[in-house]
Amino acid sequence: MHFHCFKGLRQSSDFMDWINKIYLNPSQSDQAWSKLNCDKLFKFEAINMWHNVLIKGENIMNKHLKSLAHQVNDYLKNDNKADAKKALTVSIEKLHDLRVATRKWLAVMNPDDEMVASFKKIIQASNKVRDMDVFLWEILPTFPESWQADLVALQAGLQDSRAELNSQFKVLLETELVDELVRAKKRLVKHAHAFESAHGRHKMPFKEIEKRLKTAVKELKLLDLEDKQLHKIRLLIKRLRYQLEHFYPEEHKALALTETIQERLGLFHDQYQAMNLLDKHQSLLTPHMFEQTYAFLQHEKQRTISALRQFLTK
C-alpha cells in the first residue's frame, strides 16, 4: 500500500500543492488523505519527508538571502569621501560581489515567483555601471601605451558617467530593493513553503543539462555565429553552471567545462560592450583614435572566440 500511495503522489502533477495543503492546513487533511486511501504510517512518513525538504530548502535559501542582504549593506555603506580613489576601488569590488550574490539568490528562487522581477532589477540596473568598470579598469589598460595619452578625455568622461550611474543605482537600492529584501525575509520566515517549491521545481535533470551543454558546444564551433547568438549561449551556459553548482556539485567535469566557457564568453561579452561604449562616446576621441581603438577591440574579440573554439575542439 505504501508503494502504491507514494507512486500515486509522485506521479501527480499537483503533488507540490497537495503536500503543502496537507502540511500547512491540518484541518483540511482528512478529506485529502481519504481520497488517496493511504494508511497512517505512510501519512507520517510523507509529512516527515516533506518537513525535512522544507528545512533543507529554507537553509539554502536563507543562506543566499543573508549573503545578498550583506552585500547590499556593504555596497550602500561604501562612501569614503576622504579617499576617493580607494572608495572607487572598493565600490567596483562590492558591485561585483553584489551582482554575484544576486545571481545566486535568483538561482534558488522559483522562476515564477512574483519577487524575481524585483531582484533582477539589481542586475539590470547595475549593468551599465559594471560595463564601465570593466572598460575602465580591465579593457582600457590593454590598449597600447602609445595611445594612453589620447584616451585621457575618454577615461575622464566615463568616470563622470560612472559616478552618476552609480548614484542612481544606490538610490534604487535604498528606495525599492532594500524593502524587497525585508519582504523576502519575512516571507521566508513565515511561508518557507512558498519559496521552497523553487528548490525542486526548477531543478533541471542532469541529462537535460548534458544535452543543452552538448548543443551549446556544437553551436560555439560554428564560424558564422552573430554576437547576439553568442550572448544567448553565454546566458544559457551561466544558467547551466548555476544548476550544476546548486544541484549537481559532484559533476566536476561538466562544472569545469561550463566555468571555462562562461569565462571565455564573459571576456567576449566585455569586449563587445566596450565597443558599444566606444561607439557611444566617440566624441571624446579623435576620429583616427576611435578607428584604431575600435579595430583593436574587434581584433581582440575575434581572438577570444577563436581561442574558445580551439579549446572546444581539443
Can you give me a brief rundown of this structure?
The chain is 81% helix and 0% strand.
Name the descriptors.
12 helices; single chain; mainly alpha; flat; 314 residues; 0% strand
Strand content: under 5%
Helix content: over 70%
Helix and strand succession? HHHHHHHHHHHH
Structural Rg: 24 Å
Task: Classify the secondary structure makeup into a structural class.
Answer: mainly alpha
Number of strands: 0
Biggest beta sheet attributes: none
Which spans have pLDDT < 50 for at least 5 consecutive residues? 1-30, 39-57
N-to-C span: 53 Å
Mean pLDDT: 78
Shape: flat
Tally of contiguous helical segments: 12
Characterize the structure shown:
The chain is mostly helical and about 325 residues long. It has twelve helices and no strands. The chain has helices at about 1-10, 15-25, 30-35, 40-75, 85-105, 115-140, 150-190, 190-200, 205-220, 225-245, 250-280, 285-310. Helix 6 (about 115-140) packs across helix 11 and helix 11 (about 250-280) packs antiparallel against helix 12 (about 285-310).
What are the SSEs and their pairings?
Elements: H1 2-11, H2 15-24, H3 29-36, H4 40-77, H5 84-107, H6 116-139, H7 152-190, H8 192-201, H9 206-220, H10 227-247, H11 252-280, H12 287-312
Helix pairs in contact: 4-5, 4-7, 4-8, 5-6, 6-7, 6-11, 7-8, 9-10, 10-11, 11-12
